[in-house]
Amino acid sequence: MPNVADHLIEQLDTQGVRRIYGIPGDSLNGLTDALRENGHMEWVHHRHEEAAAFAAAAEAEITGELAVCVGSCGPGNLHLINGLYDANRSRVPVLAIAAQIPTEEIGSNYFQETNPVEVFRGCSVYAEQVSDVKQMPRILRIAMREAIEKRGVAVLVISGDVALSEMERTATQRIAKTSPRVLPNEQELEQAAEILEESRKVTILAGAGVAGAHDEVIALADKLAAPIVHAMRGKDHIEYENPFDVGMTGLLGFASGAKAIAECDVLLMLGTDFPYQQFYPQDATIIQVDIRGEQIGRRTRVDVPLVGTVKDTAAALNALLPVQTHRKHLDNALEHYRKTRAKLDELATGSKPGAAIHPQYLARLIDQAADEDTIFTADVGSPVIWAARYLTMTGKRRVLGSFNHGSMANALCHALGAQAIDRKRQVIAFAGDGGLSMMLGELLTATQNKLPVKIVVFNNSSLNFVELEMKAAGFVTYATDLHNPDFGAVATAAGLKGYRVDDSAQLESTIRDFLAHDGPAVLDVVTDRQEMSMPPNIKLEQAKGFALYAIRTVLSGRGDELLDLAKTNWRQMF
């Protein structure tokens, strides 16, 4: 007679799950044994459960299908929480199996006891405990349905003794994913169309919700003569083959995107939850389209809320609108983008012999050498800035990151999940030195599971973005130094192929060798610590902050740091 764990694995097999990410433990013995007996699914053995949750999130985002991670009781499943927060905030379907202590010991302050249902409530759309065999088939189906339909994390808590309990064989059922068409009503569409038709200065802000709606959004932009600004999560969905693209805004973006939004009369937000209020226009009329009505108006005042899928709503608006013949706003935005893009490209050049490498140059060379369908991942901090500004989208490439949760150390972990789906597809992680060292043990996950990920380390010996935030706020940088090893040598010791470059002249040829290596590899590049990622517009408060930083730095006896800062960034000023 099968047990609860057998049924769980059979149901996941029926669902099409082909791998489970995690670390084994005695409270998971029933599940790991059922997995061994099943033989259809791969156990991706990690060195830290947090990485397992990030990896599952990456798989779910790339495939759109349910991904699974597990953690043993107590500390084991608590380690999942950061990756699960990331998955839930990125709205990707993940099922987390959280083992629990023996049922009879619950409530006794037993060894490793926690209350996982309550712990995971804040980072999930569903969290329940299976306390009886009779619950199992239905609760499992509900958890899967919740994760798939709500596009979030479902947590199933199971004690090890319950997982080993016998149960009658029960038929499994695949949970079908639905793709509904949702449209605003006719009156709402007509109101929005009337406002859009009357404006000569419409700008579109596109986010992750434009996935699958590329052609409809481009057609709408053409009708409106509207430049398209994208958020980071919209980059791989709308940037490619887009004659209306004017780049990004926000902390990762650049001047042309910010200017197109600041100068519009109407801002049309499509599937975006762009968080930074200071980058929204002050006086424009705002129309927001989102499948989730509760998301509308969270970031800025919205004049016309439209609940609908972007693909269908954009097509419906397009059908109601005439062609806008006044295209000056669009032409000005595109011209400004061309100038901004040219300036950014000028920064992506090699350094003089003996000088640290410009991170822009590293990012540009990787972009040029990478495959047409590469999956990129990027650590939060300066690596994601260079990814945002220098990676070129093709319609087949993807960019993953902790763009909503903002966690350090996501790049390698996301890359492992992306690579596990297809070991032949190129996966490149843009890792910060702080991020990589935080999850350094996951290099062993790559070798053990034969995952040929390519990890590029932007090694500036600092928590670089934290330093930038300190400077902008007027603080002398402190406690941000990183005393790093040779990450290439560390990688070699861990069984990967390791490379290290500290001279621009060596970089291009080394990148070719690095990407051609048949297996996991690390490229450690010594980049300039003082390279500044300028925000789109320098605000008065930031200018005051930098001035205050300069004064405090000189007074603290670190004036040489200012000279290095000026020397490195002189080319950005003129």
Automatic annotation (TrEMBL):
Region (FAD-binding domain): 181-332
Residues annotated to bind Mg(2+): 433, 460
Broad enzyme group: oxidoreductase
Documented activity regulation: The C-terminus inhibits activity; it has to move for the enzyme to be active. Activated by lipid-binding, which occurs via the C-terminus.
Residues that hold FAD according to the record: 249-252, 272-276, 290
Chain residue ranges for the region called Membrane-binding domain: 531-572
Domain annotation Thiamine pyrophosphate enzyme N-terminal TPP-binding: ranges: 3-115
Swiss-Prot/TrEMBL site (Moves into active site upon enzyme activation, plays a role in electron transfer) positions: 465
Reaction(s) catalysed (UniProt annotation): a ubiquinone + pyruvate + H2O = a ubiquinol + acetate + CO2
Named cofactor requirement(s): Mg(2+); thiamine diphosphate; FAD
Ligand binding (thiamine diphosphate): 49, 406-408, 433-435, 460-466
Family to which the UniProt record says this protein belongs: Belongs to the TPP enzyme family.
HAMAP family reported for this sequence: POX
Subunit structure: Homotetramer.
UniProt-recorded name of the protein: Pyruvate dehydrogenase [ubiquinone]
Species annotation: Glutamicibacter halophytocola
Gene responsible for this protein: poxB
